[in-house]
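Agenda item 2: tryptophan complex prediction
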Amino acid sequence: MKTTHRATFGGRLSAVLVTAGSAVGLGNIWRFPYVAGENGGAAFLLIYILSVLIMGVPIMLAEFAIGRNTRSNAVGAFRKLSPRWTILGYNSVVAPLLIMGFYLVVSGWTMEYMIHSITGDFTHVHTADEYAALFSAFTQNPWRPALYTVIFTLLTHGVIALGVQKGIERSSRIMMPLLLVILVVLAIHSMLLPNGWEGVRFLFTPDFSKVTASTFLTALGQAFFSLSIGLGCLVTYASYFKEDTNITHTALQVASIDTLVAVLAGIVIFPAVFSVGIEPTAGPSLVFVTLPAIFNTLPLSMVWSTIFFLLLVIAALTSTISLHEVLTAYVHEEWHLSRRTSAWIVTAACILLGIAASLSLGAWKWLQIGGISFFDLLDFVTANILLPAAGFFVCIFVGWVLDRRFMPQELTNKGTIPLRLWPLLRLLLRWVCPLLMLLIFMDNIGII
Ligand code: TRP
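Presented output:
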């Protein structure tokens, strides 16, 4: 393939912000709080943080090394390093497409809710039951959620079409700081609510009685999903890093920002939940039902719910951009099409999948397999199978297949910065991560 000029991200900060943009998403703000709520709060948080440190950061580093070394899309990257492992690259582009299928739908909901908040439609709805009815009527509506899915996809397309620097980099440099500011404001607001400290205590006082074997898999799955591990995003973004980007620092910073955002999202949500005396275990509808109902009881409810859903829209958008880019870079470089055409092909595929997933919850109820809707199926297959499998094989690939000098070379930028903690990292990548993953997996399917 002819090597055209490949874009790189500008400064050191850009690499961190753009990658954090991919990592921070609905996974942190929508999923983390309800999963933590269902799994014992603080105890879950502890296991989650351990998963991030022991498995998340090492695998993230491995993916950074692969991307920056090869300067290719996910498929090209694995092929360049070892043609036999190209299949791992294919998993890294098929899975993001499947993730997009349901992720864009939920992103669409956040946008619809933001607009409802702005127009003041929620002022007529009061109790949590009414919100629940509204939510199910909305998600099952024959066309509105599908329409918002399409709008959100086009918004993502718009950023991708502007290019790596002018689109992805510039938008992250604006959206990520804005996201952090909004989150801090909302967190302070929540803590000041009557009874708010109950929620903070829930998040920080561990209750190990709720911890079971499956908590570990849930925490690991959540950590992988939240850090965007395994599915090409980190490889693709790292292929735009500069030669002198310190990937260790970048990985640690991204993991810290991502965890901080998840914790802050918990601080926004749990105090609010406790202040009105609702159980924190409401599940996926926590932010679409429980939270708007709570906002409604507060002064200036319109303002709070508008900025909360704006927060979700921003978080979701920086993540859909990264998923879209994995696919666009792949089509562009592997099928030898222009970036513009590639982006449109990806957008069209996302729209088709997104509409199918959205309608499978309502108008197209027949679209289910084994009693599970297409929407839930996409979520299940990617989060519980493709994602952990990808993480596992990345460890095997980097730990056992690649030349042992590969990682040290990338970690030290070819010997220009010191190599720190390498024996530990090598141990984690070769033994600890794969074995822990196997154990957790076998435990969950009941083998041990
Ligand atoms: N990390 C994002 C979130 O928390 C979602 C995401 C983006 C993702 N790219 C990914 C998940 C790649 C897994 C793999 O919402």
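Discussion summary: The pocket of tryptophan is lined by residues 22-23, 25-28, 99, 225-226, 228, 230-231, 233, 319, 322-323, 387 (CB under 6 Å).
Owner for follow-up: CH.
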